[in-house]
Write a structure and sequence with these properties.
Helix content: 55-70%
Largest sheet: none
Number of domains: 1
Number of helices: 6
Number of strands: 0
Strand content: under 5%
Oligomer: single chain
Shape: elongated
């Protein structure tokens, strides 16, 4: 398997993992699940903070799944997870309402996936200003896959 195909498969795998986790957690934010309400109450931003973070997570999911906006999705989810991890470390603790650290682990997983996507697709960073470049112009050579 050539390097371009390997990087593409790795990136899409990471994108899907991050998107599924984000989609699951944003569902709980939008549905007003008790754990989500508890977290955002502890942070002093319930309900508007919960809804705003849910909206940002929805945008991150959509960006991660659209080929032209993957880098924006990875950057957005990296920022969101930096906030989530910081909230756990500074205020919430690693375990929230006896979840065994699951929410913290999910945040670290999405953070890691997002960081890895950015590394894999690092040659695309200059293209962020050109999001509407036709897909056929984003060849493997442009993506930097051919080293």
């Amino acid at each position: 398997m050539n390097m371009c195909k390997t990087k593409n498969i790795a990136s899409w795998t990471l994108q899907l993992v991050a998107a599924v986790i984000l989609a699951q957690t944003l569902f709980f934010k939008f549905s007003g699940a008790e754990e989500s309400k508890y977290i955002f109450t502890m942070l002093g931003v319930e309900p508007w903070g919960r809804v705003a973070v849910g909206c940002a997570e929805l945008v991150a999911v959509l960006f991660l799944l659209a080929p032209r906006t993957v880098m924006l999705g990875a950057l957005l989810s990296l920022g969101l997870m930096t906030g989530a991890i910081g909230s756990h470390l500074a205020k919430l603790g690693l375990v929230v309402q006896e979840d065994g650290g699951l929410l913290f682990a999910l945040a670290v997983t999405v953070f890691g996936c997002s960081a890895a996507i950015l590394v894999i697709r690092r040659s695309q960073i200059p293209l962020l200003g050109h999001l509407f470049v036709p897909m056929h112009e984003l060849s493997c050579a442009t993506k930097g896959c051919g080293h």
